[in-house]
Amino acid sequence: MVPNSSKPTVIIIGRPNVGKSTLFNRLVGKRLALVDDQPGVTRDRRFGDAVIAGLEFQIVDTAGWEDEDAESLPGRMRKQTEVSLEGADAAMFVFDSRIGLTPLDEEIARWLREQAVPVILVANKAEGSQGDAGIFESFSLGFGEPAAISAEHGEGIADLFDHLWPIIGAKAEAAEIEAEIDEEDEEALLAGPLKLAIVGRPNAGKSTLINRLLGEDRLLTGPEAGITRDSIAIDWEWHDPRSGEDREIRLIDTAGMRKKAQVIDKLEKLSVADARRAVDFAEVVVLLLDATRGLESQDLRIANMVLEEGRALMIAINKWDVAEGASALFNGIRDALNEGLAQVRGVPLFAVSAKTGKGLDQMLGGAFELREAWSRRVPTAALNRWFDDALEANPPPAPKGKRIKLRYITQASIRPPRFVVFGTRLDMLPKSYERYLVNGIRDKLGFDAVPVRVVLKSPKNPFQKD
């Protein structure tokens, strides 16, 4: 087994004295492993951080493979080498190209062919033309063209990169992205006040709703549309009846958003722009509907704007105390939302009344749950287990007979959750397959109605000419 690491792991395997430790030292850039002409100097596995032209990976030096009794010291060293392959992403099988293949090299090759780990054949000590005969002979092992190098002189490292990159490039770039993520403390994020913005068309009852929550006439209300002009933030504590705890909320009231063609007054334009900025600062946004008017096209425009900004969205139908045909109205709005917000199905929907207080505790409890999903980070191992299952259940297509290879996925950020998929020929991947991945992330990994971003990326080979 190899230590826990998000970087890909590469194992160096070979018989004694072929230059494994010299190659290890070359790749880590330090003299960490003892090197001597005497075979068998390395007895235990040695781990190091290797880099070739920006390709970072974990390298493991192993004891020389010897054909000895399992209970002897060389036999136990060989067992260590066999165990080291478990969990590795690739194996570099090193042989001495000046000497050529030996029976022990062929025995190692037979064993490696039975393993599931990709093998890179490395012809060491190939400086000049001294190793040409051994290189040609090595094609008989069935691992393809070897990487011809001189670990001692540093020759052929670019050739080694070209062999490694197709196998571990995607995972290496994913690990680099993970390392760049600002490691925000998820518990601290969720412990802070919930930033909750209330948006909607004019006169949907936003200010009345906030006054009801606060238990006081804090905001000016009335039958005239557009009374609220500035986005107003109010710090408040909500008593959660489920847990009995007081939870901090920053309530943000916003100006009503009318259709752009109807926004003529300069002051109203500034108010709508201010409401958009309030959405940017919010964590969860409640789109308030008027039960007496139902769902209108402007509501869907506002909802799409919130989702495009990456905020967590929920819908509250206000004035439920005067709604007619309540059950049919609720179901009709639910169906219309599923159709009009196809990119995020199942947005939380609540029936509330700012006048009576109906449904407000349920709405606020749902807002905290939605923030938690919006802030969730999936462990890389669990994420890739889901990814492998998704690819097996529905493999990517092969347009014009060209296979699209999806290699690896990582979560690059939270709030909103953003995922990066690495592979080849990604420009040919149909949008329908991207939607399949997004829906799978949402359904299987607990993101529900949260806006999810998926980015496709092909690792860049620095040695490849444009």
From TrEMBL:
Listed binding positions for GTP 1 are: 14-21, 61-65, 124-127
Supply one GO molecular-function term: GTP binding
For this protein, the record's InterPro entries field holds: G_ENGA (IPR031166), GTP-bd (IPR006073), GTPase_Der (IPR016484), KH_dom-like (IPR032859), KH_dom-like_a/b (IPR015946), P-loop_NTPase (IPR027417), Small_GTP-bd (IPR005225)
Might you name a Gene Ontology BP term for this protein? ribosome biogenesis
Where on this chain does GTP 2 bind?
200-207, 253-257, 318-321
* Gene3D superfamilies with a match to the protein in the record: 3.30.300.20, P-loop containing nucleotide triphosphate hydrolases
One Pfam match:
MMR_HSR1
List each copy of the EngA-type G domain by range. 8-172, 194-375
Report keywords, A-Z. GTP-binding, Nucleotide-binding, Repeat, Ribosome biogenesis
Its biological purpose is as follows: GTPase that plays an essential role in the late steps of ribosome biogenesis.
| PANTHER family cross-referenced by the UniProt entry | GTPASE DER
Q: Which HAMAP family match?
A: GTPase_Der (MF_00195)
User: What family does the Swiss-Prot or TrEMBL record give for this protein?
Assistant: Belongs to the TRAFAC class TrmE-Era-EngA-EngB-Septin-like GTPase superfamily. EngA (Der) GTPase family.
Give the record's subunit note. Answer: Associates with the 50S ribosomal subunit.
- Please state what the protein is called: GTPase Der
What organism is this sequence from? Qipengyuania flava
